[in-house]
Amino acid sequence: MILIELYLQFLIIGATAFGGGYAVLPLINSYIVEGKGWITMAEMTDVITISNMTPGPIAINSATFVGTKVAGLPGSIVATLGVVTPSFILMSIIGYVLFAKNKRLTFLEKMLKTLRPTVVGLIAIAAVDLIQEAIFTNNASPESFTINYVPLLTFFVGLYFYYKKVNLTKLILVGAALGIGLSFVF
């Protein structure tokens, strides 16, 4: 029963995840973290961090991680299949129409153009949630937040290097090294 539930939850996420990448994070948070409670927000932050260091889309990496945590190897396979099924079907249909029929889909172009601001909004929501989880620690109640200085410092160092156009691989390595080094200091 849990495998069917995993498949259906990630099928819904895959079917409604327009914009891919970071735009899917609020959906995963809503369905998986808040709705089902299969992972915590801290684990979600770890999934995103690991997903950025490993090849593949965030949605697929997240589905694989959550599936493994909930139901082991069968869960990872089922959740991953669930998240990719809608894209596979949609891209097969669009690919057939565009390439086999050699047509232009103006309605699709218009739909995608109007979805762009929505995707930006979803990415912003995900960014706020991640920053909140990574930097602020909730000690006892929602009113008593404390700042975790290690991620805050690495965030600003990372932001500085990003604007200096440092290679993203080097940026991730510097962030990891800073995180390890600063955890011994604080």
Q: Can you give me a brief rundown of this structure?
A:
The chain has helices at residues 2-16, 25-36, 41-53, 58-100, 106-135, 149-163, 168-185; strands spanning 136-138, 145-147. The protein is mainly alpha-helical. Helices cover 78% and strands 3% of the residues.
Overall description:
The protein has about 190 residues and is mainly α. Helix content is about 80%, strand content about 5%. It has 7 helices and 2 strands; from the N terminus they run αααααββαα. The protein has a two-stranded antiparallel sheet with strand order 1-2. Strand 1 (about 135-140) and strand 2 form a beta hairpin. Helix 1 (about 1-15) runs antiparallel to helix 2 and helix 1 (about 1-15) crosses helix 4 (about 60-100). The protein is globular, with a radius of gyration of 19 Å. The mean pLDDT is about 80.
Features:
about 190 residues; mainly alpha; two-stranded antiparallel sheet; globular
Write the layout of secondary structure elements.
Layout: H1 2-16, H2 25-36, H3 41-53, H4 58-100, H5 106-135, E1 136-138, E2 145-147, H6 149-163, H7 168-185
Helix pairs in contact: 1-2, 1-4, 3-4, 6-7
